[in-house]
Amino acid sequence: MECRHPSDFEPQLTDEVISFFAQHMLNIYRDILYLLSTEDDSNYGRGTSIFDRTRNRFLNLIMTRQCPVDVHLVNGSLKFIFQIGSATIRFLKDDFENPKKKKYFMQQLHSMSLFPLDDQQPHYWRFILNEPKTLDDEPLVIFVGYNLANEVVAYWDSSSIAGLNHIHLIEPETPKPVELGSPLVEDPDMDNEKEDDDDSEAVNN
Fold first, then answer.
1. 160 has a pLDDT exceeding 90
2. Are strands 124-130 and 87-93 parallel, antiparallel or unpaired?
3. 54 in any annotated domain
């Protein structure tokens, strides 16, 4: 099945909006990998820390209205669900091609028997943090929309935005030169002349 851009289904899901959340997920992932990289750390600890920080970051961004679009918080618990336009969204860390957390992709479709199955329309959305599989790979955030049959019908990933997966270091600004006046240095000969004058006055007096 051919996948389309998320904005084809929900106009507010633009590259700018999706990449805003994706960049936060990538930054948190890198921060945790850097901080929890000792022999006392584990994949479990890193995974829970990534989830907790991402949830708290998204919650803060939504509550303080720092997102580039209006975002409605549906569920602020550990389940954590938010909504952009008509799109209901969750996030997780998993392998997109071989997901282990299948429960995140399964919807309880109580009304499927009442309505015809629309296999072209996404009914739920996921941000998926894909860890690199090799040292040469980059972490990837994938944003997908699934239909009622749990098939991908909308797709976006962070590689489509140039430079999103790379850390940008800002070049430090060179300080503007400050003109300093010439230092006040007394001429030693002037001091000697002054001492001679003082001695002369003392002798003459």
1. no
2. parallel
3. yes
Residue span of the structural domain in which 107 resides: 6-160
84 Cβ neighbours under 8 A, 6+ residues apart: 10, 12, 13, 17, 69, 70, 71, 72
Total number of domains constituting the chain: 1
CB atoms within 10 A of CB 102: 9
Three-class secondary structure of residue 107 per DSSP: coil
Residue 70 lies in a domain: yes
CB-count exposure of residue 139 (10 Å: 0-12, 13-18, 19+) = middle
Q: Tokens for 54, please give them.
A: 């991402």
| Residues in CB range of 9: below 8 A, 6 or more apart | 86, 87, 121, 122, 145, 153, 154
Task: Quote the pLDDT of residue 165.
Answer: 53
Q: CA 80, 64, 50 angle in degrees (round to 5)?
A: 40
